[in-house]
Amino acid sequence: MDIEIFPYRVLGSDTTEKLLNxxxxxxxxxxxxxxxxxxxxxxxxxxxxxxxxxxxTVNGEKVVLQVKTARIFLEITLESTIDEVEKICxxxxxxGFDINQDRAHYIRKQKTVTDRIKYGNKDIPDELIGxxxxxxxxxxxxxxIKKDD
Length: 149
Prior knowledge:
The chain is an alpha+beta fold. Helix content is 23%, strand content 19%.
């Protein structure tokens, strides 16, 4: 099952980093996708204290944050995990949020035409399905963070 975390405000880099680390620490979380507007191109000219595009560490791996976090999609298997997710969100998102589970799937699970355009007819791992953007380079937009087994 997939759930959507919809904060009432766009999250900053620090909040995103803390939230993702806590969410990724849950055993039942299979995939996490963040979505939001891209950082403006002129952000590099801002003083460092105002720059949000930066390297964050999630589950011990360095990730370049390239979007403002407006939504977070989680793939989970147990409904009881939603309670744990809600507690984590209450800790990091004090201004409010919604957890939606209205749709059966927020993250695509089957290979589509877009995936075929991007990868060809190659077999791709399940965790990469639904992570394509036909207009971008794969390495620029997807980071796979391995969990400790």
